[in-house]
Amino acid sequence: MNTKQISEPKKDYLVCEQKLVYTLLMASAGMMGAYTYVLRGGVFCNAQTANVLVMAINFGRGDWLGGLYFLIPISAYLLGAFVSEILPSPVKKLGFLRWDTYLTIFEAAVLFLLGFLPLSVPHQVVQVLVNFLASMQYNTFRQAEGIPMATTFCTNHIRQVGVGLAKAIRKKDRTALRRGIIHAGMVSAFLLGAALLTYLCPILEEKAIWLALIPMGIVLTKLLRADLGTEHHMLDRKPSGH
Description:
Blueprint: H1 3-7, H2 19-38, H3 49-60, H4 64-69, H5 71-86, H6 88-94, H7 99-114, H8 123-140, E1 143-144, E2 147-148, H9 155-171, H10 174-204, H11 213-230
Antiparallel strand pairs: 1-2
Helix pairs in contact: 2-10, 2-11, 5-8, 7-8, 7-11, 9-10
Transmembrane segments: 20-38, 68-87, 99-119, 180-202, 208-228
Pfam family, one: DUF1275
Keywords: Membrane, Transmembrane, Transmembrane helix
């Protein structure tokens, strides 16, 4: 047993780094992904691997125009990463709220507005907006209590579950097993969010996206309480991974 680990004090994490916040964001992201797939054109907007792949397939088939179309969602995702990297510094100078909180407010506002767009609106409009939001969220929320995380897709979470199980079996590593369980919980939150929204899509139609505001609203409440109260003196402190 490592005595250094026993005596090492537990790190104090910001509210925006809490595992609960990440779990709620995963549930919301699952809803966004299901929404664009079920109601808005049958595409996944939370990540871009599929878009790059389909673009390459179109190019390989000689459909250059069809391939170039995918530059639109890819560019929206790129822009989201760019904006979320540029804005935190000037936002910090305001000294009122953290960037994470402003982003969550912006996400909630956009998702609320999307619920008013009828299904007759070109799907590309909604897809680009969700691409933009997903990119900013992914680039902003990076670590949950010291554990690297992605809040908009499941690939790395699933990988980490496998890694955790392997280390637990080979090395009896309880920490790796615990991390694997945490990642499995993130995947479960994403799955449950996507399943719930899919079930209600036929009933609520375009307004189904408002379901994503429930976990998003809980996150926003926690962030606002921290920024305006318990963590107001720590607005300059960067979350882990930044």
